[in-house]
Amino acid sequence: MTKTKMPYRRLGHSGLQLSALSFGSWVTFDNQIKDDLALDCMQAAHDAGCNFYDNAEAYAGGESEAIMGRVIEQLGWKRQSYVLSTKVFWGLDGRMPNMQNTLNRKYLHHSIEGCLDRLKVDFVDLLFCHRADPNTPIEETVFAMHDLITRGKVLYWGTSEWSADEIRAAWDIADRHHLHKPVMEQPQYNMMERVKVEIEFNRLYDDIGLGLTTWSPLASGLLSGKYRDGIPDDSRGALPGYGWLAKRFADPATVAKAENIRPIADELGCSMAQLAIAWCAANPRVTTVITGASKASQVVDNFGALEVMEALTPEIVERINAAVA
Question: What is the set of domains in the chain, with CATH numbers?
Answer without folding.
Answer: 8-219+279-294 (3.20.20.100)
